[in-house]
Amino acid sequence: MRFATLDGRLVLTRDALALDVPGGEAVNASLGRFDELLKWAVGADWSSAVPFTVEQLGPPVPQPRQVFAVALNYRPHAAEAGYQAPDDPLLFTKFPSCITGPITAVTLPQGKPDWEIEVVAVIGAGGSSIPASRAWDAVAGLTLGQDLSERDLQMRGKPPQFSLAKSFPGFGPTGPYLVTPDEFADRDDIGFECFLGDERVQHGRTSEMIFPVAELVARISAVCPLLPGDLIFTGTPAGVGNRRNPPRYLQPGETLISKAEGIGEIRQTFR
């Protein structure tokens, strides 16, 4: 099943139709009762559904309470950054105010703004100390995101300012849909790629992650209770701008298009 937000309300989507979820104005609460929501969706009456376009959609979770992100979770990206692959997940956060929808215009800050395509896990019921064997039960679905990053601010401090540099307005575009795990042929092997203009700058498959979704859920929930609507940006593959030779950064007038199998496309235009 595919969910989205339309005018801030959680909706069930099918083709180009959107059906309001009962209580969908409270997105996080709806995700907290996700098993009940899925049962409703199976027999939903589509007679009141309305047409929509992707441009009308907001972020699948407009106001997540916690946004986790994972650094160096693909070996080629760790290598291009000059690091050994980590033995444990390297976690930071994107502040929730940066989260936006799938089709956006982003005002670039001064410095060296960069791209990082990521598949994002959306937490449903959540919980604490969730074992990896039951981790997918806590996940409502997957969406697509960009972990946009301003590298000057990120690397200015010692240690680096990861979270702040990745949380400028519009630096967390997500969407277009929250797709339930059963929709994928293999929920742990999803292909994704992003383009600047006609150039493909990144591509990968989630099966290449060092720490897959289930392990991330287990590791994070062992420390922080995972709440309905929380997001986990699961990491980016090789191809980011600051590790190119010469480095390349986002420029006004450029458009970044990101795609993921079974999820769809998000598009950011920079100004």
UniProtKB/TrEMBL annotation:
Fumarylacetoacetase-like C-terminal domain ranges (all copies): 67-270
Pfam families for this protein: FAA_hydrolase
Gene Ontology MF, one: metal ion binding
Top-rank taxon, per record: Bacteria
A Gene Ontology BP annotation from the UniProt entry: small molecule metabolic process
InterPro entries reported for this sequence: FAH, Fumarylacetoacetase-like_C, Fumarylacetoacetase_C_sf
Record keywords, A-Z: Metal-binding
Family the UniProt entry places it in: Belongs to the FAH family.
Name this polypeptide is given: 2-keto-4-pentenoate hydratase/2-oxohepta-3-ene-1,7-dioic acid hydratase in catechol pathway
Organism of origin: Actinoplanes lutulentus
